[in-house]
Amino acid sequence: MKIEIDTLEKKKAVMIIHDIEVYLVNTLRRIMLSEIPKLAIQDVIIYDNTSALFDEIIAHRLGLIPIPTDLDLLSFRDDCVCEGKGCPSCTVRYTLSKEGAGIVFSGDLVPAEKSWAITEKNIPIVELFNDQRLILEVETVLGKAKDHAKWQLVIAPGYRFMPTITFDPKRKADVEDFISELPKDIVSIQDNTLVLSDIEKLPIVESYIETEHIDFITISKDPGTIQFHFETDGSIPADDTMLHALGIFKEKLDKFESLMKKL
Fold this sequence. Notes:
Radius of gyration: 25 Å
Structural class: alpha+beta
Largest sheet: 6 strands, antiparallel
CATH topology of the largest domain: RNA Polymerase Alpha Subunit, Chain A, domain 2
Number of strands: 12
Strand order of the largest sheet: 1-2-12-9-11-10
Low-confidence stretches: none
CATH superfamily of the largest domain: DNA-directed RNA polymerase, insert domain
Helix content: 25-40%
CATH class of the largest domain: Mainly Beta
Strand content: 35-45%
Shape: flat
Number of domains: 2
């Protein structure tokens, strides 16, 4: 197996994986969707809320805010040495106090320790008017998306087979005419193939081929070469997200192997 990193940003990763079975990529996708733990707001204590929104709506919006998560420093509350009482090893606390006209943003949440400061600061929670105010305290804990969607770290992970676009060399002139009809710089000719500038543009080429009933261009897809892509909500960087997913995958395989040996 060979992996090529196409894009690696804080919240996004795209990679090309060669010589791999589809079921392995799909397993990784499912782990990312449901198994990677992250922090999310679990308990909300509202001391004063004179805004236009009910307490329940405020709490719901708070639950959707991405909370920066360091899995090396945290443990699940049920597994913590504090026995679920909520110590700094399993619980991160924030306070919020704002009064007067203006929008309350996620960045207004003040952490008990500066290292847990909210990074996605511009998520609106509620708009206050005149002398309205909002004073509250929240507790965040680790959880998994399979238990509740507020703990879902990865957004829309997906994969696709890498395409190969070939054409009849005897009709190269027709191919050049075809390319001239496409939006600029989508494909280029290389030997007897068309090379996409961006795989995201493949549907455009497929649409033109279907609409114009082109029979001298063929698109084939290699199931052994896969583009895998995903985005995160920012709680955990994309590269760490991939490493955590692979670690969970390995743990599951080791557990399965151990169970099989007992049969």
